[in-house]
Amino acid sequence: MQLSLNAFQFDNRLQPSLLPVVESFKRLSGLVANPERIYYPKQWMRVCEHIRSRVSMASEIVMCNVILYGKVSNKR
Q: Are 72 and 66 within 8 A, CB to CB?
């Protein structure tokens, strides 16, 4: 019974964390799938800014900046 409760609690905490990731991947896949949008830097910046606006923890901000800009920074 305890194992089931632990699994439920883990899932309960994990789901809200994954929703912004799923939404960001949907936006990114929509950009990449559209030949008219894929080559425009402004379109990429919109997706990047959307992703960056969803992170809140300092470690997430650093990871996001490394992925998006190739540098370590704690700035949003």
A: yes
pLDDT digits (tens, 9 = 90+) for 21-44: 788 888 888 888 988 888 888 888
- The DSSP-derived string for 22-36 is HHHHHHHHHHHH-TT
C-alpha distance from residue 56 to each of 17, 28, 65 (Å):
11, 20, 12
The residues spanned by each domain of the chain are 2-69
Q: Are 55 and 64 in contact (CB under 8 A)?
A: yes
Q: Specify the pTM.
A: 0.56
Distance CA 66, CA 76 (A): 12
- Determine how many CB atoms are found less than 10 A away from the CB of residue 28: 15
Helix ranges (DSSP H) in the chain = 2-33, 41-53, 58-69
